[in-house]
Amino acid sequence: MNLLPWFALKEVPGVGNLLFKRLIDAFQTPQQVFGADASRLARVSGVSKRLAGTIRAHKISDQARRSHDRALDAGVSLVPLTHGDYPKLLAAIHDPPPVLQIVGQLDPDSAMVALVGSRKATSYGLKNASGLASELAASGFTVVSGLARGIDTAAHSGALAAQGRTIAVLGCGLGTIYPPENRRLAEAIARSGALISEFDYDRSPEAHHFPMRNRIISGLSLGTVVVEASLKSGSLITARCAADQNREVFAVPGHIHASQSAGTHHLIQEGAKLVASSADITEEFAAHVHTAAKSTTTPCDLSHSKPSQNTCRPDTSKFSLDHEEISVLKVLDLYPSHIDDILQTVPMGAGRLSAVLLNLELKGVVVRSPGKLFSLKEEKS
């Protein structure tokens, strides 16, 4: 199939993903779009007479040729919207990518579930993301995420640990792995699943790419699970995309006072299904997974990710603590708290608080997690 016309139609000024789909629905191929007269083009909703003239006059540019050839030279598979290998669920959204660029094997008929969440995840969130992904993969689902730091990385890694399939949707071209520290993870994903992008191979990551990427993550998937998210987390965009696409939205609850879970709590209040174990997800989509692929493993119970009934606050009497250290310990819990939240409840400045927390960490009373999160070290009762 000659895909140059697909690249050419993508670059016509005024033809976005939504209008591209309408044109393909009306004319089947970009070649027929370019060959149609202006009056027929103008019958497509959103195509003005002026835009119809622009389409008619457009020629395949050198940039379109370079983008097309660069992908093929790099061994990338190009899958257009009308191809049988294009995922049906993604094709059903109102603004699907005209062409998917793929490294690996997509397996468009597999049942996919998206796991997304904060880049600055807590140990609680990371453990849940990995556990859910492992269980979903073992049950025959393909885990979809965005290769970002935090929850995405844990989700991909969990699926791979279960020897399952996972798909990473990039917010840049496939020639750039972002973040760069996930290069080895990306290579592992490509071996057992796929890396996907709608952007040209050499396109660098840009801020506006990631909301676009999010609609693909949700569009590929039967449902989207938000594992951990603050109210400002970009993963809430993915949840909103899923809802707009009439897909299921799930959310994992956290500690009621944790700002890192405020976004997931908001989703639950808005009607997202609360996830207490992987069974809450798999039971919704059991009919979509082939019986032979289903696992007999015990569903991942998220209660194991929380402080268990057999854990308790550390016995601080065996440590030599000053009054500042004691005041900080009083506001800490077994669930991680951000340093900014701690700062609002103790009578000291940021610099002094950091020093006190470091001392407590060195004494083995406090545990530091990525993202400036601190919690009490658990002790078995």
UniProtKB/TrEMBL annotation:
Gene3D superfamilies: 3.40.50.450, Winged helix-like DNA-binding domain superfamily/Winged helix DNA-binding domain (1.10.10.10). One of its GO terms (biological process) is DNA-mediated transformation. Residues 80-285 form the Smf/DprA SLOG domain. Residues 314-372 form the DprA winged helix domain. It comes from the Bacteria. InterPro entries: DprA, DprA_WH, DrpA_SLOG, RuvA_2-like, WH-like_DNA-bd_sf. Belongs to the DprA/Smf family. PANTHER family: PROTEIN SMF. NCBIfam families: dprA (TIGR00732). This is DNA protecting protein DprA. The lineage of its organism: Bacteria, Pseudomonadati, Thermodesulfobacteriota, Desulfobacteria, Desulfobacterales.
